[in-house]
Design a protein that fits this description.
Elements: H1 2-17, H2 26-38, H3 42-51, H4 53-74, E1 118-127, E2 130-137, E3 142-150, E4 153-158, E5 161-167, H5 168-178
Antiparallel strand pairs: 1-2, 2-3, 3-4, 4-5
Helix pairs in contact: 2-4
Length: 179
């Protein structure tokens, strides 16, 4: 009976941890960044890469089984702090799988459990094609997200830096799905 219990626990842990196979690989990124900042010569970097092969292996394993799994279930990578989870990033996929899912099933399942770090957000319309959102965070930081309509697209800027362009049709479809 004890053997069966151990097998059940092992299967549960394995099944849960394998959800993280796709993710931002934050720990591996940190090791790569360290390699690139130690020396500025391509040959030395390649040599350091070979010497750090075991570290890269450990970092990739930690990403695969721990950090990418946390990213999958919470929607945010604990190492990079970035969200949405890589698995939730919209792409122009070759194969669309069940595009008619209930919208509650299209976001990280534990993201709603996390408390928001946004204290306040306010909107103002600058002109007929520009909308601005001012965000105040609980840690005192502030950010400005601005959307500017340009033809059939809306260009988004965060603190004056361009981040993405989205078509008006995509935004309309997103609004319909959120209603």
């Amino acid at each position: 009976m004890k053997k069966i219990a151990y097998k059940a626990v092992a299967m549960t842990i394995l099944a849960t941890s394998l959800t993280g196979c796709i993710g931002q690989m934050g720990t591996s990124q940190l090791v790569t960044k360290a390699n690139l900042t130690v020396v500025d010569n391509r040959y030395a970097r390649a040599g350091l890469y070979v010497l750090l092969a075991p570290v890269y292996g450990i970092a990739a394993t930690a990403d695969l089984f721990i950090f990418n799994t946390i990213e999958f279930w919470t929607g945010r990578n604990p190492i990079t702090g970035k969200s949405p989870a890589l698995a939730d990033t919209p792409m122009n996929a070759v194969i669309k799988v069940n595009g008619q899912l209930d919208r509650q099933l299209t976001t990280a399942p534990l993201a709603s459990v996390r408390n928001s770090d946004i204290e306040e957000a306010s909107f103002r319309q600058i002109d007929e094609r520009t909308l601005e959102m001012n965000v105040a965070y609980t840690n005192g930081k502030q950010a400005v997200l601005r959307g500017e309509k340009a033809g059939e697209n809306v260009n988004f800027y965060l603190d004056g830096e361009f981040i993405t362009a989205v078509s008006v049709d995509e935004l309309s479809q997103y609004a319909r799905n959120q209603a």
